[in-house]
Amino acid sequence: MRNWWKQWLTTNLEWSQSLLIGTLDILLVVGLTYMILVIISERRTLWMVRGFIFLMLASAISGALNLLLLNFVLEKLVIGCAVAMAVSLQLEFRRFLEQLGRGEFRQLFQPHRLTVTKSDSVIDEIVDAIKELSKNRIGALLILETTEPIDERDFSVPGVKLNAQVSKELLQTIFQPKTLLHDGATLIRGSRIVSSGIILPLSGRTASRQLGTRHRAAMGITERVENCICVVVSEETGSISLAERGTLYRPLTIRKLKESLEARFSTTVDREVVAPGVLGLVSQIFRFVSHLFRLPLSFAKKNQTEK
């Protein structure tokens, strides 16, 4: 009797340990998947990540079913896709590693939502100022925040604090060649001019070396910081450019610039949150597994109802 009890206890402990490790493994995978979806901010990129996750699941299932040839092909595809994603999502991975290095673990699980911060009157003031600066061929560089405030550690030199209301007259005055702050960038947060004379890190891309310092600075800061866009006026030609996520769009007309700013700072529509809720993510994974193994969908339906 004692031997039977000891054997039963040992067996159940081994089973419980195996179940605990398996559950922990699944939770870690779900957490990592959610973290990856959080750092993705574009819908087309999200579908690419989902396709990559599908390939990994298919590779794991083919290995479990001992489908050697299919598993070999899928493993090579997963490796190739991982390399391709590392190249195409280098800005996202860079931001992820920076947040991880700074210990900002909470932000890794917080989806980014566009906060409405600029009214039509503020956009009109900015556009009117850019129009006059472009007409007179006066160089300018504006940084416009789109979501949370930019960390000053991302600037080479943080500049001079102003905390002034946005107006076309003040913006034109700041960038006049004889003023002390005209060489740097000006940061706009909501309807306030936060600071001017900011020195930004330059982009190291080969293609950008043919551009002027302001354009390279605009590309450099938008490469490092995702939650901002930059408006640039060329001192030589007066042409207008817009930088976002390390990409420079130029030349822009005044009408096109206004449309671009209105599209990014809409007062009626928030940018879609790409990352789903935790329960939604678990439900999606369960639905996928249920479809493969014909498991009951009660858990997934329950979560869908609760949402």
Descriptive notes:
- The chain has helices at residues 2-39, 43-64, 68-88, 90-102, 120-135, 168-174, 213-224, 254-264, 278-293, 298-306, and strands at residues 140-145, 160-165, 185-189, 192-198, 228-233, 240-244, 247-252.
- With 307 residues, the chain is an alpha+beta fold.
- It has 2 domains: 2-112 and 278-306, no CATH class; 120-264, YojJ-like (1 (3-Layer(aba) Sandwich).
- It has a 7-stranded mixed β-sheet with strand order 2-4-3-1-5-6-7, sandwiched between helices.
- Strand 3 (185-189) and strand 4 form a beta hairpin.
- Helix 9 runs antiparallel to helix 10.
Specify the CATH architecture of the largest domain.
Answer: 3-Layer(aba) Sandwich
Class based on secondary structure composition and strand pairing: alpha+beta
Q: Approximately what portion of the residues adopt beta-strand conformation?
A: 5-15%
The tally of strands reads 7
Provide the descriptors you would attach to this structure in a database record.
307 residues; alpha+beta; YojJ-like (1; 2 domains; seven-stranded mixed sheet; elongated; disordered C terminus; cell membrane; transmembrane helix; nucleotide-binding; DisA
